[in-house]
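Appendix B. Raw example, untouched.
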Amino acid sequence: MYGSDEPGIGLSEAEARRRLETFGPNVLEAARGPSWFGILLRQFTSVLIVILLIAALVAAIMGETVDAVAIVAIVVLNGALGFFQEWRAERTLEALRGLLAEHATVIRDGKAREIDMWEIVPGDHVLLQAGAKVPADIRLVDAAALRADESALTGESVSADKGPGEGRSGSVFMGTNIVEGRGSGTVVATGMKTDFGDIASATGRIERRPTHLQQTLARLGTWLGLVALVLGALVVILGVLVGHSMADMAMTGLSLAVAMVPEGLPAVVTVTLALGARAMVRRKALSRRLQATETLGAASIVCTDKTGTLTENRMTVSRIWTPEGTVDVSGVGYAPSGSFTQEGRALDPGVTTILERLLWAARTCNHAKIERCEETWERVGEPTEAALVVAAMKAGVEGSGRTIREIPFSSERKRMTVVADTGDGPRAFVKGAPERILERCAMIAGSDGDMPLDDARRADIERAYESFAERGHRVLAVAERPVFDASVADDRIESDLVFLGLVGIIDPPRAEVKDAIEQARGAGIDVVMITGDAPVTALAIARMIGIPAHGFVTGDELESMDDNALSAALDQGVVFARTTPRHKMRIVEILQRDGRIVAMTGDGVNDAPALKKADIGIAMGIRGTDVARDASDLVLLDDNFASIVGAIEEGRRQYANIRKFVRYLLSSNAGEVVAIGANIVIGGPLIFLPIQILWMNLVTDGITALALGFEKSEPDAMKQAPRAAEEDVIGRRGLAVIATFALYTGTATLFAFYHTLDHGPLLAGTVAFTTMVFLEKFSVFAFRSLTAPLSSIGFLSNPWLLAALGLTLGLQVLGVHWAPLQHVLHTTALPRELWALILLLVLPVVIVPEAYKIISSRNGKRGQAADAP
């Protein structure tokens, strides 16, 4: 109904402008990235940040201007770091955008002209040819051997035949590619009204789940905030009841509240994740959200597409059957390098007449070309045809002859024929579906001449066909015959053919994927293949690469399953084939219902809803669509599954380090709380001033905690099962460690304080302040690993930590002996004997944890030896 009255004329420019105003530009809203303001605002929404801003407000009201400014500064720094990383990721994505055609050829006012894609309107008559990207949803008016790659929408790797008619075969869709033939049609939908846009719109309606780390830190922030408020209030009430002034107790309560909240934690987490994001780029993965890689480290299952992620996305001839036997062909992709072997022995294709005839026929009956582009080889044309050309080039078979006539491929005929002049007269070369070729054959090629195709030989061909299909190959049959009169009917040319053989074509697995999947499984991570491809092909690829699939479930079968049956199928291990976006969404929902942290890969528009629904969505950077990348948390820059496993290892390292410095910071803060709280109960003078607490929490602790983020992965990181979805960043063991360190550091600091109190509160306060700083600094060695001693992980393996330790201890010494800092921190110089006392109190926090880990490590090894057969 949108077309012009005269199809050959097309729309007029005036009508096109009117329709552009009515329907809007042909663009996808989902392809627009988040605004800079949205990214900035996202940095200030965590509970911990809100608590810090409240603390800054309270400090300002109490007149503690320096404290308030320091807290606000750390919040601003944290926001700036997070904003910079995420904004840079979005800008990198801009460079990856470009799935949709920038220009299209339309008929306007009776003339063909090229216009920008966004100018296309419903009713435009668009011209299509091989290599073009479809700019809108188009109903075909005419087509000649037109085939479209619709994998971006359907996940199906085999190109679809297109021609005028009803249903999907009579239309082409925005975001797909024309791989063969030519045609034209009328635009029936643009922008968000297209199939492409429908999925993009549905994706936009899905709420993004907060990451595991965000949930954990939010719970931690809430808990710390409540404890800080309760303890602060109790201290004020208790102090007033025992006779202290309200002003003094308000200051003490504020000090205790400030001590409870690890002010440096948000910044340390942000910086660590930002550094981790940079490390991820080196592993060919771009993190769009800082928490994305940490969440990937927690993934217990990876749902992955097949084509291009697990496979090369380059169709390749790997096996050929002729009456002389089965031949294996090496080499992957479109580079014409490889060899032919038969039963393990090298084979010269020129020596085997039938194989050479088959390759000659396959290359002649072909539209594809292989071209050298700098250091790579690229195909022009349909992938399956390109694979045949490459196989012929590997054998040195050129294929030649002037094409006299062509009978094009169609979905009904399932075969293609070319009549060419070979120099010895015209000859017909035919390729297509084996069943359709076999029914047209009367003879079969033989070493000593062509032979009748009897029942026994047909049975041999059928067995070879089944063998190839079971291996996941797409199988084509090739035949030929001499032609004495090229003008006869199509049916006559395609009858009484000589059967030459079968060609097995497959999109082979990436070489590194099998090891990557083995590593993932060793880390307790299940891998599930979900593809739009054929089930037999998908299952064959799964078994090649080590995915333990016991069968397959098609999309139609999945429709009839209830949730419990689907959950059971996932537990048993199956491949999902012929799936739709709705199926992928349901699989993700069932896995999340069962408590799994789900990573989902995808590249097409059809993958976008599931990518956004998953805990961690992973889009392909090279072949991925804009919609898929916009819905994702992580973008693979090389489209390689092995990069996912590398990213998982990096994510586990990040989480382990975050857990280390969270426990470290909380043990430091808890020690301060113990010292302050016990001192209040004793009724002594104020042991720490708010500015000293901020110095400890922001300057000294923050720098050291950040250095913990540089710890390398522990040796068994990828041998452990994924952490549970409900696991807390602290954990019961962490609470015990925090309590132990807090009791000792708090008690030791109180001892130092009261040991020197007779010399005046300024000296005693300086001793207590410095003792706590040194205890916190040297306790960091215990948190480098909770199980492995320093002798195992290496004392010098984290030079950043040693540098941070030297810097912070040096700053503390300056704070005690340099007049400007003495004035800010309210300290005084310490004599040598008090420095000796402080160092003596520090020794246990280094010696005791190391001794414990050494003993535990030895006992563990003895236990393993005892358990060994």
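End of appendix B.
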